Amino acid sequence: MRLTSSEDTNASRDDTIVSDPETLGGMPVIKGTRVLAYDLAASVKAGIRGIVY
Known about the structure:
2 helices; 2 strands; mainly alpha; two-stranded antiparallel sheet
């Protein structure tokens, strides 16, 4: 079975945001980091770009 691009994106996204009581008290974070999902979403909405070297 081949996934459509939106299904593939959703399958990848399912484990990107995680919540663990041991990390920031269980707040949703980007997997492997301590970056709050809320902060990332707020930055994208505000148009804040990443650091360019």
